[in-house]
Amino acid sequence: MPNNNNQKKIDFSHLFIGVGGAMIGAWWIKNEVAEWKKSRAEKDHPEDVEEVCKEIAELLDDWTPTDCKSENDYTIDLFNYLADNCDYEIEMYPNTSEGRPDILIENLLVLELKVNPNKAERDRLVTQCMGYSRQWVTWAIVIDASASKTGKIENLLADKGLEYILVIPYS
Questions:
Q1: Measured distance between the N- and C-terminal CA atoms of the chain, rounded to whole angstroms
Q2: N or C: the chain end with fewer CB closer than 10 Å?
Q3: Amino acid 32: pLDDT
Q4: 48: exposed, middle or buried (Cβ count in 10 Å: 0-12, 13-18, 19+)
Q5: Is the pLDDT score of 149 beyond 50?
Q6: For the residues of the chain, what is the DSSP string, one character each?
Q7: 169: which strand partners?
Q8: Is domain 39-170 given the CATH code 3.40.50 in the classification?
């Protein structure tokens, strides 16, 4: 009869170390990718970006467009509203190395507006956001679009690895 006290004990501790190491490695890679996706503004001026984004988000919550018919009208209306309600440097249609964003705030945040964009305009928006997001935090403001169109924009951005670009719908 075998002696139970002499049976070999199986040591699984090496598995726990391996799994723990894999989890830490995955966390590190995720954080490195998140760091890699940050705009130049976020890397160079993280506190300023946070302050600007917070204040502009609050202002956007309170913005009510007035008498706008075209994308240009909405852009002018939003530009004037922001200029009247904050102390940041705000530029409309500035010429930059990345193109001409609709609104550039404090050289940290871009607001790109689209009114009920069709497929071609949605594709163009993704391309614009891709370019702008290298340099600045970039938000897409989508006006008078259905929830499904807004969702398509979010999906297009995510498919291109740009899920960090905020899509803000206005009806």
A1: 81
A2: N
A3: 43
A4: middle
A5: yes
A6: ---GGGSPPP--HHHHHHHHHHHHHHHHHHHHHHHHHS-HHHHH-HHHHHHHHHHHHHHHHH----S--SHHHHHHHHHHHHHHH--S-EEES--BTTB--SEEETTTEEEEEEES--HHHHHHHHHHHHHHHHHSEEEEEEES--HHHHHHHHHHHHHTT-TTSEEEEE-
A7: 142
A8: no
CB 136 within 8 A of CB 165: no
Can you read off the two tokens belonging to residue 117?
């964009």
Instruction: Provide the pLDDT confidence category of residue 37 given band limits of 50, 70 and 90.
Output: confident
Question: How big is the CA angle at 144 (ends 68 and 117), to the nearest 5 degrees?
Answer: 100
Q: Alpha-carbon distance 126 to 129, whole Å?
A: 5
Residue 140 C-alpha from the chain's centroid: 9
Contacts of 162 (CB under 8 A, 6+ apart): 126, 129, 130, 133
Residue 161 carries which side chain, given as an amino acid letter? Answer: G
CA 90 from centroid of its chain's CA atoms: 19
Give the integer Cα–Cα distance in Å for 144 and 18: 51
pLDDT-based confidence at residue 25 (cuts at 50, 70, 90)? very low
